Amino acid sequence: MAEELRKKTYNEDDITILHGLEGVQKRPAMYIGSTGSTGLHHLVWEIVDNAVDEALNGFGSSISVTIHKDGSISVLDDGRGIPTGIHKEAKIPAVELIFTTLHSGGKFSSKAYTTSAGMHGVGAAVTNALSEFVDVTIWRDGKIHHIRFEDGGKTVVPLEIIGNTNKHGTLVTFKPSAKYFTTSEFRWQTIFDHLQESAYLLKKIHFDLKDERTNLSQSFYYENGIQQFVEDMNANKNTLDKVLYMHDLSDDIYVEIAMQYAFNDYNETLYSYVNNVRTIDGGTHETGFRMGLTRAVNDFAEANNLLKGKTKLEGTDIREGLTAVISLRIPEAIAEFEGQTKAKLGTPQVLNIVSNFIYNKFTYYLAENKEFSINLIKKCQDAQNARVAARKAKDEARASKTKKTEVIISDKLTPAQSKDYAKNELFIVEGDSAGGTARNGRDRIHQAILPLRGKPLNTDSATVSKMLENKEFATIINAIGAGYGQAFDVSEAKYGKIIIMTDADTDGAHIQTLLLTFFYNFMRPLITSGHVYVAVPPLYRVYKETNKKEIEEYAWNDEDLALAKKKIGPGYKVSRFKGLGEMNDKQLKETTMDPKHRQLIQVNIENPFLAEKRISTLMGKDTAIRRKWVEENVDFNTEDSFFKEQIHGEEKK
Ligand code: 28G
Hints:
The chain is of the alpha+beta class. 39% of the residues lie in helices and 22% in strands.
């Protein structure tokens, strides 16, 4: 066996093949983005996306993923099965070639559509290169075929036939090699999100996820694809009309758009995909969509005399409260991706195709649905009025900066002394008393304190004017100094960090939710650019008095607690902090405010469509749903909370 292997290694073809995989092993991050959790999951996407490709091309209708207890994972599809015949040039079975050479797909295929976009669509060989083993079973041509690779892509069991069958499909099981990754744990939620997203984009395909570690399982199947996607995102919103779904094929480019408007939503939520891969940085399809939509609405308003002498609507007026999903299928040959992360579509001709597509379809829809059109134009004009008013208020605030009467709302804000805004931190603190403690414990140079009395207003069901009348939010907007809504400009923010500091109880969690809802609705860039944090106060103080000197340690969880007890030694006492109010200024500073010791959670939106859905579930019109959800789910330290929280690298203890 070893003899055979060695011989194989030195055969000409194989040298180049092994060379390819060595490149991946030397610089894994270049191929999979990172060697952390994201990179680990990329190995899964490489395999899953091949199954998705097969379904996308019309073969197979069901894809299952199973996470095993031993750190391996399986993907099963019911497509044609990976070809097993000997490849003419390489003189090895096609399946072996696919798993042992980079970009082998491109070499011999002229597949119409492929999921591979950008740098991460690098193929199954990358997964093989970075795995302890890859085991492949193929049902095809009446036979069951099997091949196995180990130790970074070495063929240890050459392709063999192990039985007869009348089924077809492919099963790939692999285990990432611990050598290359800083983590080896597959995350249920991450794989859940990926499969759900694929299921929305690939209608009528069954996806199943099973986790043998926990016995959890989940199926995804969307008869109506992206139409259902938008429906689900907006499930708890007060919508203007049903979801509008349109699709068309033009010049080999298949365009699919689902969209819906909602009242009381001041954001545009646009998700775009090319060949099932999210284009988070947009590109020509998004630009075309925005251009065509703006033109359609303005032309309609003008033709029906609805502008009444007013200026044309701006794109942002037209997209307020809009949730849309754009999905394109583009032949691989003309799919161009730009930018550092290759997540922006560059294909020039797509701009006009999508622009004309949405212009024609939406113009027709507006003409056919007069009640909707009138409501929509009214809504757009409300947005226009609000935008003009906000701009005016901002200009006036700027002009009157020297006037003393300016600050009518900020009497509770204790400012920071420094004008180095990026280094300044605004603590929004639950309660006047904790606010007082924080004021005394703060770093005067860089930390500002804003205490909140009671619960902030729920901005998900409030109008803009209600929100502005609210003293707390008016103060926050004023303190941050960068406007709100469409006019919000994150580069003008007077704080590098906005830190929410509440008690670690249900009320505190609710206040966090209400504040995050406000930031999500009116200052979203503050969240997406990583400026919003939640402070984590410790749960315990472990202490002991020794010859008049007191020694103490703080603990955030049971693990910390055990360590602290050990450190303090025999005779320790433990006190449990129930709220911020139980700490004095020195303790609060040391544990929760001082950058050297504190723990902060950086708020970011991992899966925006879930955030959207959960925010509106949580904060929307239906109070019964909300109460139930809060009772069952509000725990800002679980993975399942709607804002994904990460302990910020620098701040991590
Ligand atoms: C279960 C985990 C991941 C796959 C297929 C099926 C074919 C294929 C895959 O072809 C390249 C290009 C055309 C021959 C294609 C089968 C054509 C005819 C396929 C998967 C080589 C690869 N019959 N199913 N690749 N072709 N499933 N699931 O990887 O010329 S990959």
